[in-house]
Amino acid sequence: QQTTSKQTNNKQTTTYHTHTYTHTMTSSSYYDIDSILAEEELVPCSNLFDFSRLAHLSPDHTTSPTSGAGAADSKALYLPEHSSFKMPLWSIEQWTQLGFVNIGIPKHFRQTARERLLADPSQADLRRYNERFYASGLKWMDLVSSMSSSDDTSTKSTTSTSSRHQRRQQEINDNEAKALRTTLLQTYTGDRLRRTLDYAMSSVGDDVSFYTRTLTEMERRLFQRGSSGATAFSKWKTFGNRRIEIGIFAQRAAAMESQHQQLQQQPQRIVTPDNGTVQKRQRTR
């Protein structure tokens, strides 16, 4: 019973950290440049019906059969049903909500890539796949989650072959999204994070570009903050025990104060109106 309770607590803790990590990554403003660039991730898609005048999306396309005069000039290019093509993540959000396309998982987020990543995350060159690897993965998971919620309300009662295929694909995406969420969390918070902080805190003045060139944008910002903190601490250890010199503005302020005090101490000649004699009186502050 104690073992079972421990396992349950560990699962709850992992779930809490996962949700916290996801909320931190996805809580960005509309004009956030990182969020915009993260949505440039190319997602494999397949259309659920013929798309008119979108045959250019796929290299293997056919034209719709037409007849009559002027048919060659007004020929509409069709993208056949179930054609495979890739589109940026931001451009297919409405299509997925309307049920126009099915989506797949990008190659560097699939199971084989995840297993390679978890084998040695500190050596993986994530920037080669995507400069915003983590953010793009979370964006894809959010898209899958929105598709799942829309499918529960739209295709739950349908029994057609296309609907069953769509639900099966959605189940696959849901499972992939859960596995990807765990992989991203373990990659970011594991050995890779520890090594990044080690380089940041112990490489003051050294060239570590061989390592930083493999980091994503989020990891580079973390490295820069750690490096700036280590640099400031090193300067404090070097110059912290020395005498602090007075700045030039402080010296000017002290000189002006001294002149003001001297003027206050000088005697002042006052002419009285009754006898016109001149008396000397000390200035008082």
Any overview of this molecule?
There is one protein chain. The chain is mainly α and 285 residues long. 55% of the residues lie in helices and 11% in strands. The strands form 3 sheets. It has a 3-stranded antiparallel β-sheet with strand order 5-1-6. A 3-stranded antiparallel β-sheet has the order 2-4-3, with no helix packed on it. A two-stranded antiparallel sheet has the order 7-8. The chain is elongated. Residues 1-27, 66-75 and 277-285 have low confidence and may be disordered.
In brief:
The protein has 285 residues and is mainly alpha-helical.
**What is the arithmetic mean of pLDDT?**
77
Q: Kindly state the number of beta strands.
A: 8
| Proportion of residues in helical segments | 55-70%
Largest beta sheet, briefly?
A: 3 strands, antiparallel
Strand order of the largest sheet: 5-1-6
Keywords, separated by commas or semicolons:
about 280 residues; mainly alpha; three-stranded antiparallel beta sheet; about 55% helix; about 10% strand; disordered N terminus
